[in-house]
Design a protein that fits this description.
The chain has 425 residues and is of the alpha/beta class. The protein contains 15 helices and 18 strands. A hairpin with a 2-residue loop joins strand 6 and strand 7 (128-131). The two termini are 29 Å apart.
Length: 425
């Protein structure tokens, strides 16, 4: 293994795995804290997906260190800590605490923090994170229920989370190339351990930053920061493969779409699928709570409809409806109830012959993959920026598209399944 990645959520892990795969690495994604180094697969890069974004910092640190130890034990020469491209975190963590702990474990004096992902509109300029044309603090992330982001200057966001000095490696330095970037990071760490927030508004900036960190034990960032890393290993003669689209063949069988995300993009995708005449079942969270609806009801509905066309099962609702449900049952309880239902539905659907599953929502994807008992994913072709098809890599016959709520074009559901039509196996 050349590169070990620790990702703080499942769809984010898939996103970075896709990036590395497209740049020519053999990548496998694993789910959950690895048991040991021996439990990790043989690949150029292994991406360990945790669910540690909003947990108590101590838990996030201990899981991340366990993942780091397993990756190092399996031969990783470099560790990347991957988080969201909108820098989802609070003053308590978990980006700072996990970065500090990994710096100590790996014995590095400095590391980088760069969530930029220009293909998805995330750029960093003078330390400020933009989402499209808006500052992070003006974007919908300001109202995120768990990690509201109301400060765009990442130096200010990270400082209260870390015990180290936080500095800026600005655009003007990144433009000068990898040597200048390396010198800037060394200067930041001259007086003690430091984390440098680095500017990047183009893929070329990300490649420069990646090159500057060749041979350095630790990087942190969004999936974009992985862009330049495979070339480092290639330049060192350690990686033979070239950039390519991975060969991919989905198992033959029925297709279904499960949407548990209520984000704007997913709401649009549900509406688009309905307009295209796809048969849909709406999971009403109130009916679920009052036990008038269960996974069995949904599965009975699906059994007579699975066939040539996909079905769509969704709990996706407008913010006002979600708010009412959360007020009545509590935010976490409502979320868990819907996640459990969708996970049970996923399990039942595979028993009914579904082998192609599109899932919308980060938490929802985590619940579904866990319920299906999938511990490893192989990365396939890209559907939209940051979202690939994946194949269960531990003997289960299923292809999965796991979509972070806000990703994907309006026709994502139909487009993703059409992509598989010529890839039977
Ligand atoms: P996203 O990627 O858009 O954040 P997630 O799946 O991560 O999507 O999170 C959505 C959360 O909202 C999940 O916990 C899900 O169970 C919950 N949820 C989905 N539908 C509803 C609903 N109708 N009412 C309340 N909560 C819901």
């Amino acid at each position: 293994m050349l590169l070990g990645v620790i990702a703080d959520d499942l769809t984010g892990a898939t996103d970075v795995a896709l990036m590395l795969s497209r740049e020519g690495m053999r990548v496998v994604q694993t789910v959950g804290v690895p048991q040991s180094a021996d439990s990790l697969p043989d690949a150029d890069a292994v991406v360990v997906s945790l669910k540690s974004r909003t947990n108590p910092p101590e838990e996030a640190i201990s899981w991340s260190l366990a993942a780091c130890d397993a990756l190092l034990g399996a031969g990783a020469q470099q560790i990347l800590f991957k988080y969201c491209s909108t820098f989802d975190s609070t003053d308590k963590g978990n980006i700072g605490p996990v970065t500090d702990a990994l710096m100590q474990r790996l014995g590095v004096e400095y590391t980088i923090a760069c969530p930029a992902f220009p293909a998805n509109g995330r750029s960093v300029y003078q330390g400020h994170l933009f989402v499209g044309a808006q500052l992070l603090s003006d974007s919908p992330m300001k109202d995120h229920p768990l990690t509201p982001m109301r400060e765009s200057n990442l130096v200010n966001v990270l400082q209260p989370q870390s015990k180290h000095a936080i500095g800026l490696v600005p655009f003007s330095v990144v433009e000068q190339g990898a040597e200048a970037v390396r010198a800037a990071f060394q200067a930041l760490a001259a007086k003690g351990p430091a984390i440098g927030v680095a500017d990047a508004v183009t893929n070329q900036h990300l490649r420069t930053l990646g090159k500057a960190f060749a041979g350095h034990a630790l990087l942190t960032g969004g999936s974009g920061i992985a862009l330049g890393l495979p070339d480092n290993f290639r330049a060192a003669g350690l990686l033979q493969s070239q950039r390519r689209e991975a060969g991919f063949a989905a198992p033959k069988g029925h297709a279904a779409i499960l949407a548990g995300s209520c984000s704007a993009a997913t709401r649009g995708q549900v509406a688009d699928a309905k307009a295209k005449g796809i048969e849909t079942f709406e999971i009403d969270a109130v009916a679920l709570a009052e036990k008038r609806l269960s996974a069995e009801t949904v599965l009975a509905w699906a059994s007579s409809r699975l066939g040539a066309k996909p079905v769509l099962i969704y709990s996706t609702a407008e913010p006002e409806i979600v708010r009412q449900i959360q007020d009545r049952f509590g935010r976490d309880a409502a979320g868990a109830m819907v996640e459990h239902c969708l996970a049970d539905v996923a399990k039942g659907l595979t028993a009914q012959g579904v082998t192609r599953l599109v899932v919308a929502g980060g938490e929802t994807s985590g619940a579904v993959v866990t319920a299906l008992g999938i511990s490893m994913l192989e990365i396939g072709p890209e559907i939209d920026p940051g979202v690939p098809w994946t194949l269960a890599a531990d003997g289960k016959r299923i292809a999965l598209a796991l979509k972070s709520g806000n990703f994907g074009t309006p026709d994502f559901f139909t487009k993703s399944l059409v992509m598989l039509e010529d890839t039977q196996r």
